[in-house]
Design a protein that fits this description.
25% of the residues lie in helices and 31% in strands. It has 392 residues and is of the alpha+beta class. The chain has a six-stranded antiparallel barrel with strand order 1-2-3-6-5-4. It has a six-stranded antiparallel barrel with strand order 7-8-9-12-11-10. 32% of the residues are buried. About 8% of the residues have low confidence.
Length: 392
């Protein structure tokens, strides 16, 4: 009996040891051989064509490279020069001085250099820029992104909106890369924008930011203001350059900056494409811009003025002066009247009044609603053509 129990115990011990060894060594017996570490990547790449890859986010892979590459060939550098008359040295009026130094002391004419940017809007050579970039210039040179240089001539300018068009004469069969205009009113606050231009003359540069605000006015920059505000860096030399969206489509013309140092402080202003396109088309067709005018001077209605004139609110524009013999004078409008509406469009302030009058067609009558002595009425005014600004 004892012998049988000993044999049983030994058999159980051997079986347990066998099971332990089997479970311990099983992973090594059935494991698949693995490639060396340096070859593992190539195995994944070989398997990838048969697998569905996740969709790539364009902005994650290449930022806004495509938008910049699409718009940059349409942005040019503009170099201008102007002969400046220097004041005559008072010593030259002295015969004694002239006896010793003669006419050699006469100061030679000097030329003032300027730089800016422009946007090609037509493959035939039309370029949109700021009026202040080319104003009074007697020599204009345009350089494209690929290094070609052309002499340019002014087609026309509009100081009231600070827009101008220049044109370069191209050889037969030669075309420039024109920009693509974004749909009007497509821009929203927070949209990504790129500013392209030639800041400080260093060469074509792209900066990145967002739309900070829309419809900025009352800045004292232009007569007609409706600016896009952006924090994309805009510096001297960017004027007239392109502000484009994330697709590379033109949304504005870079025009001005707010700065206390002369450099970018994150507040730049651009003329929206809707206004720029309208002005550009008029300049190309006629060489000038035609706006309506009635010959009045207006001012904002403050709460104090509203109380003084016993007005119910501050809406409208107060007529501060009327040009004698002008359209408003002939229609019977007087100082002290409050202009409430033009051709059915309500007026909220002097800027909106100016814009509505300017949008009227010269030679046609427009019904203007006014308030006088607490009573409202309307008069028909024959719209005249807005005079050109006097040179400073």
């Amino acid at each position: 009996m004892h012998r049988l129990w000993l044999i049983f115990a030994q058999a159980v011990t051997i079986s347990v040891a066998g099971l332990f060894a089997f479970h311990t060594l099983q992973p090594l017996w059935f494991a698949q051989p693995q490639a060396p570490a340096e070859n593992r990547g190539s195995m994944v790449q070989e398997a990838a064509p048969g697998m569905a890859e996740p969709a790539e986010d364009e902005h994650r892979t290449d930022g806004y490279r495509r938008a910049a590459q699409r718009a940059m060939p349409s942005v040019v550098h503009i170099f201008t020069s102007q002969e400046v008359k220097t004041p005559r040295n008072p010593f030259l009026n002295d015969p004694f001085f002239r006896h010793f130094f003669g006419d050699r002391a006469e100061m030679q004419p000097q030329r003032r250099q300027g730089l800016g940017s422009g946007v090609i809007v037509n493959g035939d050579g039309y370029i949109l820029t700021n009026n202040h970039v080319i104003a009074d210039a007697d020599d204009i040179e345009v350089a494209t992104q690929d290094g070609r240089k052309y002499k340019a001539r002014i087609v026309g300018g509009d100081p009231d909106s600070d827009l101008a068009v220049v044109r370069v004469d191209l050889e037969s069969g030669t075309h420039l890369s024109a920009v693509v205009f974004a749909p009007p009113e497509s821009l929203r606050i927070g949209d990504v924008v790129l500013a392209i231009g030639n800041p400080f003359g260093v060469g074509q540069t792209v900066t990145h930011g967002i739309v900070s605000a829309l419809g900025r006015s009352h800045l004292g920059i232009n007569t007609f203001e409706n600016f896009i505000q952006t924090d994309a860096a805009i510096n001297p030399g960017n004027s007239g350059g392109a502000l484009v969206d994330a697709r590379g489509h033109l949304v504005g013309i870079n025009t001005a900056i707010y700065s206390q140092s002369g450099g970018s402080m994150g507040i730049g202003f651009a003329i929206p494409v809707s206004l720029a396109k309208t002005i550009m088309e008029q300049i190309i067709q006629t060489g000038t811009v035609t706006r309506g005018w009635i010959g009045v001077e207006v001012q904002e209605i403050t709460p104090e003025l509203a109380e003084s004139f016993k007005l119910p609110n501050t809406e409208g524009a107060l007529i501060a002066g009327v040009m004698r013999g002008g359209p408003a004078d002939l229609a019977g409008i007087r100082p002290g009247d409050v202009l409430l509406a033009v051709a059915g469009t309500r007026i909220t302030d002097p800027q909106s009044m100016l814009e509505q009058i300017a949008s009227q067609t010269p030679g046609q009558k427009a019904v203007i609603q006014i308030r006088r002595d607490g009573r409202e009425g309307s008069v028909a005014v024959l719209i005249a053509r807005r005079p050109k600004p006097r040179p400073e």
